[in-house]
């Protein structure tokens, strides 16, 4: 799995949000844009996916 830094700039959540608006982002991308970074041992994409899944399930 690629890290956010490995993605082309136009595909990074924050840049995509700035350029195209929130409606252009997936739930995971929107959470990633809000969180900004992961924590030691857990990358941002994995955390974002988990948070978005929790939100959808509630």
Helix percent reads 40-55%
Give the helices and strands as they follow along the chain: HHH
Main β sheet profile: none
Measured between the Cα atoms of the first and last residue, the distance is: 27 Å
Number of helices: 3
Count of beta strands: 0
Structural class: mainly alpha
Average pLDDT, rounded to a whole number, is 91
Q: Mind telling me the C-alpha Rg?
A: 11 Å
Shape category: flat
Q: Hey, roughly how much beta strand do the residues contain? A: under 5%
Q: How many domain regions?
A: 1
What are the low-pLDDT stretches, counting only 5+ consecutive residues below 50? none
Would you summarize the structure shown here?
This protein is mostly helical and 58 residues long. It has helices at residues 13-20, 27-35, 44-57. Helix content is 53%, strand content 0%.
Structural features, described:
By secondary structure, this protein is an all-alpha fold. The chain has one domain. The chain is 53% helix and 0% strand. It contains three helices and no strands. The mean pLDDT is 91.
């Amino acid at each position: 799995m690629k890290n956010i830094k490995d993605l082309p700039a136009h595909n990074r959540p924050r840049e995509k949000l700035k350029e195209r608006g929130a409606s252009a982002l997936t739930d995971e991308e929107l959470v990633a844009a809000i969180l900004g970074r992961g924590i030691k041992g857990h990358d941002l994409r994995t955390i974002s996916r988990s948070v978005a899944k929790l939100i959808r399930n509630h």
